[in-house]
Amino acid sequence: MRRRKDPALIKERHAGADAAAVLEAAARSLSGAPRSKRSLVERLITAGYPEEHVITATDRLEAVGIIDDERLARSLVESRDRSRQRGDRALAQELRRRGVPDEIAVRVLAERSDEAEGEPLREGEQTPLSAEERAAYAAAAKVRLRGGDARAEVQRVAQALARRGFPSGLSWRIARERVAGAGEGSVPLQPPEGLGEAD
Q1: What is the spatial distance between Cα 179 and Cα 182, in angstroms, rounded to a whole number?
Q2: Backbone angles phi, psi at 4, to 5 degrees
Q3: Is residue 167 a part of any domain in this protein?
Q4: Does any domain span residue 189?
């Protein structure tokens, strides 16, 4: 059985690390998954590395493009659009939790909204979905109706959409449409091309 290393000894060893060792640790930390600059700084300082070396290392990695908060934010938003259908509020919260600065998150989410309303894409490219289309798809694909009281169903669907970060007015409107459509025996929405069923 492998013995666990003492965390106090590890932190003590990290405290004496030089700039090259901190840069190597930062690069190693990024090899598993991309991180925001703030997230990486917090991780390295928590591990016991000297703060001045951590700041120098992360600045250097950012200068050469290895750390790019905007690229991370775009990647995360595109990934969530393909798989989870979240509203802007939920995505902004996730970006904040991952250490992406608010100004970058706001810019990326605004561009996402502009793309959905903007010019048509070239042939073969997928059309970005508007917030309304994402909410309607999420309501149809992810929230199952139980066939009970219509008011209770509307409330349940609206709450599920609100938890996904969609605005409350839009959530209630889509929920009413979804429950009314189910009463008419309508066929549920098919997922737009390129969107998975994973939640």
Answers
A1: 5
A2: -80, 140
A3: yes
A4: no
Number of domains in the chain: 3
**Amino acid sitting at position 156:** R
Model pLDDT, residue 60: 93
- What is the tens place of the pLDDT at every residue in 112-140? 776 654 444 444 445 556 666 666 666 66
Query: Is-above-0.85 flag for pTM?
Result: no
The residue segments making up the domain with residue 97 are 69-117
Question: Which among 84, 95, 133, 97 is positioned nearest to 113, based on CA atoms?
Answer: 133
Mention every residue, 6+ apart, whose C-beta is less than 8 A from residue 117: 130
The amino acid present at 145, given as its one-letter code, is: L
pLDDT digits (tens, 9 = 90+) for 56-97: 999 999 999 999 999 999 998 888 877 767 788 888 999 999
Residue 188: DSSP 8-state:
P
Q: Where are the beta strands (DSSP E) in the chain?
A: none
Spell out the residues 6+ positions from residue 68 whose beta carbon is closer than 8 angstroms to its own: 62
Residue 152 is assigned to a structural domain of this protein: yes
* DSSP-derived secondary structure letter, 38: H
